[in-house]
Amino acid sequence: MKVLVNVLVWLAVLAFVVGAATRFLFGGAWLGQEAVVYWRGAIGFLAFASTLTLIQIRDK
Asked: I need a labelling partner for 24 at 20 to 30 A (CA). Which of 5, 17, 35, 54 fits?
């Protein structure tokens, strides 16, 4: 389960970096979507990772 949490955190980092680069370097029109979509995705990945971490702590 720790591997899944780490993968989700890295996906969140990747989504945030892509969203930030899209917004600030290309004006938000790159990849055909607004950059806010990638930021929301990053928050979703982090929320899921934190939920999995809390489930692990609760089950110990």
From this structure: 5
Question: Which amino acid, residue 60?
Answer: K
User: Residue 28 is encoded by which pair of tokens?
Assistant: 């938000």
- Cα–Cα dist 24/19, whole Å: 9
Regions of the chain short of the pLDDT cut 70: 28-36
| Rounded distance between C-alpha atoms, residue 25 and residue 14, angstroms | 16
Distance, in Å, from the CA atom of 38 to the CA atom of 30, rounded to the nearest integer, reads 12
Angle at alpha carbon of residue 12, lines to 18 and 17, rounded to 5°: 20
Beta strands in the chain (DSSP E): none
Nearest-angstrom CA–CA distance, 57 and 17: 29
